Amino acid sequence: MIDSITFLIQAILIAYRTRLLALTGMLVFFVLSAMGLAHSFSPRQADVVALDVALSCLRIGGLLLLLILAQQLIVVDIERRVILGVIALPVKRHSYLVGRFLAISSLLLVFVVASGLGVFLEAHYMMPVFAGLSQPEWLKIPAVLGGVWIELVVILSAMIFFTTLAKTPYLSAILTLGFAVASRSLHAALNYLMHDPDASAKVKVRLLPALDFIRWLVPDLSLLDWRDAALYAQPWEKMAIFPSILMATGYSALLIIGAVWLFQRREFD
């Protein structure tokens, strides 16, 4: 565990020296700018629409930050053969991987918390308040942000797993991007085809068998999107929070265990 913490601190120092922390600040600014723009162009329910846009941009920015951090802190080490010096040290290989995972997860948490705090301050001190319009339930926003962070951690776990498999520099990033898109949209598409009477019969015949198989491999990360509770006062009971957290935690743990197993057996040239 001490070795993992050492690699965690090392990764954060590398992120600082390579100005990845500055990138984090730029992405926070992107989220706040998108929120302000949405608020100014929304004459009805301005605060709700602005927060909705901010949460969507937060997910996009978090995914971009995740890909860049993992690429710079893990993939680059492998491609530049820095990893050869790491595995030559008298430490277990999994300490490196776990330390990098914890470091990137921590940086993603900083990004999510900073964005959430910025959104709160911008909404209360920089945006005009329109009387008579519904307001978001701000006390629920921390839980919503927690769902965003858990989703990013699951995608990060997939990125690390793909990195231990990939032999080319950008393959893991491409696979992770596909995983993120599929996990957010696959189950919604499957529900549409299975339950919507307007769905095309030909499309059902072509796609349902494949989608029905893939859904057992890809988690439904849309279950971690709890923004309706804050934006539209939807009860927590309809959010399925604890099953969603359990699903995400279990899936992330399986990916990390698989990545550690592969990493310990991988031969580095």
Structural commentary:
The protein is 76% helix and 0% strand. With 269 residues, the protein is mainly α. Helix 2 (20-40) packs parallel to helix 5, helix 3 (46-79) runs parallel beside helix 6 and helix 6 (141-165) packs parallel to helix 10. The two termini are 27 Å apart. 35% of the residues are buried.
Mean pLDDT: 82
Helix-strand pattern, N to C? HHHHHHHHHH
Q: In percent terms, what proportion of residues is strand? A: under 5%
Percent helix among the residues? over 70%
What profile does the largest beta sheet have? none
Number of helices: 10
Give the overall shape, derived from the CA principal axes.
globular
Number of strands: 0
Q: Return Rg in Å.
A: 20 Å
Unreliable segments (pLDDT under 50, ≥5 consecutive)?
none
**Structural class by sheet pairing and helices:** mainly alpha
| Separation of the first and last Cα atoms | 27 Å
Quick overview of this protein structure:
The chain is mainly alpha-helical and 269 residues long. 76% of the residues lie in helices and 0% in strands. The chain has helices at residues 2-17, 20-40, 46-79, 82-87, 93-125, 141-165, 171-195, 201-214, 227-231, 241-265.
Draw up the topology in text.
Blueprint: H1 2-17, H2 20-40, H3 46-79, H4 82-87, H5 93-125, H6 141-165, H7 171-195, H8 201-214, H9 227-231, H10 241-265
Please tag this protein with its features.
269 residues; mainly alpha
